[in-house]
Design brief:
It is built from six helices and no strands. By secondary structure, the protein is an all-alpha fold.
C-alpha cells in the first residue's frame, strides 16, 4: 500500500485560504456544514441509480464531477482537522483500532450488522 500523504494538499489549501483572507469564514461550524453540503452533492450523483447505472455513469465525464465533490469534502475536512489541531492520520488509526475491537473478524466477517447486534 502506498503512503497516503496529504501534507502538500493541506499546504496548498492554507495558502489559498490565506491569500483570500477566508480564515475568518472557516469556523468549525461553517467547515463542518460545508462537509455535509458537499457530501450531499456527492450523493446526488448516485441517487436513484442502480449499481449498473452508477458503473455506466462513472465511465463518462461525470467521474470528473464526482472527483471534484470528493476533493471538496476532503479539503474542508483537512482544513477543519488542521484548525482544531487534530492529526487526521492518527485519528483514523485510532478509530480503526476501536472498530477492530467493536467488530472482531470472527463475528463480523461478511456481515453488515451493527456491533451491538453481532
Amino acid at each position: 500500500m502506498s503512503h497516503f500523504n496529504l501534507e502538500s494538499a493541506l499546504e496548498a489549501l492554507l495558502v489559498f485560504r490565506s491569500e483570500r483572507d477566508w480564515m475568518q469564514f472557516h469556523t468549525p461550524k461553517n467547515l463542518s456544514m460545508s462537509i455535509a453540503i458537499e457530501s450531499a452533492e456527492l450523493m446526488e450523483h448516485f441517487q436513484w441509480k442502480s449499481n449498473e447505472e452508477v458503473k455506466q455513469y462513472l465511465t463518462t465525464d461525470n467521474l470528473h464531477n464526482v472527483k471534484d465533490e470528493i476533493a471538496d469534502i476532503a479539503s474542508y475536512l483537512l482544513l477543519l482537522s488542521h484548525d482544531l489541531g487534530i492529526d487526521l492520520n492518527q485519528s483514523i488509526m485510532e478509530k480503526v483500532k476501536k472498530n477492530a475491537a467493536k467488530y472482531p473478524i470472527e463475528k463480523s466477517k461478511g456481515k453488515h450488522d451493527k456491533y451491538n447486534e453481532l
